[in-house]
Amino acid sequence: MSKHAFCFIVRMCASSYMNLFVMESEFEELKKIVLKCNACELSKTRNNVVFGDGNPNGKIMCIGEGPGYYEDMSGRAFVGKSGKLLDKIFEASGFSRNEHIFIGNIVKCRPPENRDPKPIERETCLPFLLKQIELIDPKIIILLGATALKGLIDPNASITRLRGSWIEWNGRLVMPTYHPSALLRNPKLKRDVWEDFKAVIDKYREVVDPKHFCKNH
Ligand code: SF4
Fold this sequence. Notes:
Number of helices: 8
Largest sheet: 6 strands, mixed
CATH class: Alpha Beta
Strand order of the largest sheet: 1-3-2-4-6-5
Radius of gyration: 18 Å
Strand content: 5-15%
CATH topology: Uracil-DNA Glycosylase, subunit E
Order of helices and strands: HEEHHEHEHHEEHH
Mean pLDDT: 93
Bound molecules: iron/sulfur cluster
CATH architecture: 3-Layer(aba) Sandwich
CATH superfamily: Uracil-DNA glycosylase-like domain
Helix content: 40-55%
Shape: globular
């Protein structure tokens, strides 16, 4: 290898490393700010802010509605029954939070009694989510349920109409599907969600990793 080629590779590696470093420090800075946020009414009743969990370098981002009881108590995203079901769906798809996915919510504090977040709460919290998306830079975004779809894409959108079809949003591919809590209430919806995840697996192979292994698809 020539000296020039060697220097070029060293510069490229150093620049990638610096980008990762900047991204990680910015992500940690953002987290510190969000954990102290009192910008909306939900701050008065929460126990913990739920920033999100998973791999911030993953190429898939999953977005739900807001923390529930267990998430509020633990400060972690999707740890209750819905989260366990979601982890099973990830596993069936060959994905994991540790490697492929970062998971968060439209609002980062629990609405009392798990009511829907109010529009003003969604709008106040949205800049944090948009910054997370910018820093994580996912290729694929999975929206879990109507609140995530309305909060990110269109307040008038219908999850039953749009689930299962790709939406292009700010240069990213977005797949709306049902929230796992809807599957717990109505197990018949599992079939639709598996179809949506099969489409995500196909797209992941197309745009991220052609060798992605999934024993079920
Ligand atoms: Fe801040 Fe979002 Fe929590 Fe409201 S829900 S207090 S905007 S972090």
